[in-house]
Specification:
The protein has about 220 residues and is α/β, with parallel strands linked by helices. The protein has a domain at about 1-115 and about 180-215: Rossmann fold (3-Layer(aba) Sandwich). Helix content is about 45%, strand content about 15%. Strands 2-3-1-4-8 form a 5-stranded parallel β-sheet, sandwiched between helices. It has a 3-stranded antiparallel β-sheet with strand order 6-5-7. β5 (about 130) and β6 (about 135-140) form a beta hairpin. The protein is globular. It starts with a strand and ends with a helix. The structure holds BIS(adenosine)-5'-pentaphosphate (AP5). BIS(adenosine)-5'-pentaphosphate binds next to α1, α2, α3, α6 and β6.
């Protein structure tokens, strides 16, 4: 069984690599950003609360995301393990996760920091395209769709996220430095921790990630 945390700056490739790694390990990929965007699209009460924070590049309140995570990691879908992408995002969330895991007799097996430079992040996020129907991700230059504006997998319409514009990206990077970067101090002394360089092609980074997981097994 694998319990994995994948953290890092916006655009480092957590979603791209998390999808692939979770599928190969046979575990569920739990991405708080995806869950929140679904709630926004469905206009649920939670979605209404989250939208303004997300559009401004700020964090959604801790109690909202912590509640979502507790439900997900104890759900039947997580019985074989889980990969957390986008959670924890600050030290308070990391402490809550530890308390939840302890309560359920679980441990983190792998904590991977996906590290990327600011220039790379801006380039990746400004070019990102997502499928409105299936959520699959593309990049205008690095992994363009075969037909402009349409998803290769399901033919759905491609769109750009509201927070993927330069002004909001700068704000997200600021929030990352202030609130998420301190997680490095929190996790880096733990045996499960590994750093992976996210600069490189998708396959190259994935190979590094797999090695990091094997190394911390
Ligand atoms: P979230 O959706 O988690 O956004 P993020 O952390 O900013 O990360 P991204 O999804 O932007 O990037 P990624 O690292 O997944 O990169 P990706 O693989 O897509 O959160 C959004 C918002 O929700 C937050 O701002 C906040 O408001 C809220 N939220 C979420 N969790 C929260 C929490 N725990 N607490 C409070 N609030 C929370 O890749 C990016 C692009 O690059 C893609 O186009 C991809 O195709 C391309 N790419 C990826 N890897 C490569 C590569 N190796 N080579 C070339 N291109 C690549």
């Amino acid at each position: 069984m694998h319990h994995v945390v994948l953290f890092g700056p916006p655009g480092a490739g957590k979603g791209t690599q998390g999808d692939r790694l979770a599928a190969s390990l046979g575990i569920v990929h739990i991405a708080t950003g995806d869950m929140l965007r679904k709630a926004v699209a469905e206009q649920t009460e939670l979605g209404m609360k989250a939208k303004a924070c997300m559009d401004a590049g700020k964090f959604v309140p801790d109690d909202v995301v912590i509640g979502m995570i507790e439900e997900s990691i104890t759900a039947p879908a997580a019985a074989n393990g889980f990969l957390l992408d986008g959670f924890p995002r600050n030290v308070a969330q990391a402490e809550s996760l530890d308390a939840m895991l302890h309560q359920h007799g679980l441990d983190l097996d792998h904590v991977v920091f996906l590290d990327a430079s600011e220039d790379l992040i801006v380039e990746r996020l400004c070019g990102r395209l997502l499928c409105r129907a299936c959520g699959f991700g593309f990049h205008r230059h690095y992994s363009p769709p075969r037909e402009a504006g349409l998803c290769d997998r399901c033919g759905g319409e491609l769109y750009q996220r509201a927070d993927d514009n330069k002004e909001v990206i700068v704000q997200r990077l600021h929030v990352y430095q202030e609130q998420t970067a301190p997680l490095l101090d929190y996790y880096s002394h733990q045996a499960a921790y590994r750093r992976v360089d996210a600069d490189g092609g998708v396959d190259e980074v994935y190979d590094r990630l797999v090695l990091a997981i094997q190394d911390s097994d």
